[in-house]
């Protein structure tokens, strides 16, 4: 059968199925005489089949059937048989299925061919709205058995984007038709590059460029595991074949394409040569092909069969860098984006009908996915997912998040899938290891695991007094892919074994991580001739009353089992202690105890679980790295199975709950939960006790003073604060003048606070010396001290001289006998200028002159000199006889 089908949900509200015929359809066993019938779909399936089914359909028919369901549901078509005339491009007999009705219908399926090929194509078609249209067309030549299908109304299945963001080392899931989204945080993820999602298992697969590995995380349990870490250098492209249950990826540095199952088993390098820098990869599972980009020079689009054979170049061009790649399964068209030229290219899967267009100016494309009539492209520059119509017209930036600046890998898948339509070429294959699809619905089996060239030894029974050296033939394995084998083992041939039973284990691993193991038992018995197990301790989940217990059964020196036993391995034992007894023919007895205890809910599993964590960031930041002490277990029976976040991860502004899961016996689970809150800090620190201005006076002869004060304290809402700068310490020496001191506190988030005060040092005489004159002060202080000393000496000299003169005058003056002293006539002194001579001319600085008379004595009976006559001259000197002014 030839068909062009796409198994997805669309965005319109009608599904239209057209079968071209003028005869009748059979609907639920009833004839539909009107070829252009309108049918109603309900929750319970109804059947529709071609005319005359199961007999041959007529020639020259052209029928249109419209099926509708209630609003809010979609229509699901499930084909059970299909047998139409085969022709190129289905130009003769054909069945066409459309999404919608009348205007705006979109093709979902265009099929023809034989039922023998049908299972290799999706047997289910789902609308995106509540209407579907079927069209069945036949010509006048061959007639065959036709088709039969059921249709029913079902709830729409949500679709999600999953995008890799190395900017915050996380993945993000975004609902296709709503703003709902959630972060996915695989443990220890460093630089996620490509992603894909398996809706059947709920696992998101990712490549980590920096860690050089490939991992997966379940979106429901958040369980993370690395499935490939060996022989990986630059894992770039990644694609899940949801039909064949395979994982394909490319390695840019190694120039290879590889495949494994979805659990990481059966790893196989399918293309080792002929590639330069392979990039993105997509699969066409129903046709048995893979397609991938090569970012070398020249850039290429390549095609190969799903097992890596028949490699061919579909498209090659110089000065290009084809990167993201998507496939339209219905139209069999490849789309790719080129960040070097900012263009989008298209080509048919057979290498024909190439085309290209320029993308929006400034876009830096990385990945692309196709959905209905839209293309979604991750833009590294804008940190967004940009949507383009399939007509190559940009619609808008569809999805963007504040603070996200590095969207890379992208996928779009249904959120869940029940696997009803996952019938594929390898589903019934006889392959013992990995099955790879081939074109025309064939398959090939590949042997990838290391193979035993010498078999694993059988169980060994030995005897000895206290023990014995036991030897065996070592197993040998080789790699069918030619890789070297790494071997590890628990015991060695020729090793000494004490009495007891020992499990011997060999593990073999090739360079790709493919593993095989070998296990056998070594039992050493002593003179008693009996091997007896040790006591057994088992923990069961809370509420359980019994526990299953197994052991190696006792044997005697002949390798024979006991003839009588109280219990058997695998038996259920009640809570408490039970004695197990084995008795042999020679009356030898083996006793051991089995203890079963209940694992109570109040058992302390975690030795420590962090309290809630609060972190602050600067206003311009949107995230920060948060660390906490390593979480330890108190119960050795438990192991940490999953952590939603790990210490050192980046956390965005907001509140996020961190959950750590520990799994113990019987899959009992215990959780450690705490919250991490990241807030923006725009509050400056608080400074307490900022000193006021301090004034001090230097001692006489000193130009500096030691000053002390109580330093201010500081606090901050973030709990993290420090002094960014501090002035001199208390107890420092300060010179005469004014000194400004400033404390600056910072919280590390760009918020600062200051405390400033002055220290004023004055000289002993109260004089102040201005700032910047420290050196001058030191020189002037010496001069000032010298001048003061001189002035003091002059003052003392003048005082002594004055006393002497007074003494002499007092001896010359006659007794007054009541006679008043002589008086002087008034005279006037100039306000400015020198006096030239008594009774002469006075010359002023201004140039003027004035005449004056010399004073004359005037007697006054009062005994005092006339105050008017004295003016500003003060009291006259003591009266001396015959004394004149000239004296």
UniProtKB/TrEMBL annotation:
Membrane spanning stretches: 782-805
Residue intervals of the HYR domain: 446-526, 680-763
Leader peptide range in chain numbering: 1-29
Region called Disordered, residue ranges: 866-887
SUPFAM superfamilies reported for this sequence: Spermadhesin, CUB domain (SSF49854), YWTD domain (SSF63825)
Gene3D superfamilies membership: Spermadhesin, CUB domain, TolB, C-terminal domain
Coiled coil ranges: none
Domain CUB, chain residue ranges per copy: 35-154
Keywords assigned by UniProt, alphabetized: Disulfide bond, Lipoprotein, Membrane, Receptor, Repeat, Signal, Transmembrane, Transmembrane helix
Domain of life: Eukaryota
InterPro entries: 6-blade_b-propeller_TolB-like (IPR011042), CUB_dom (IPR000859), HYR_dom (IPR003410), LDLR_classB_rpt (IPR000033), Sperma_CUB_dom_sf (IPR035914)
CDD domains, sorted: CUB
LDL-receptor class B repeat windows: 245-287, 288-331
Name this protein carries in UniProt: Low-density lipoprotein receptor-related protein 6
Organism: Holothuria leucospilota (Black long sea cucumber)
Source organism phylogeny: Eukaryota, Metazoa, Echinodermata, Eleutherozoa, Echinozoa
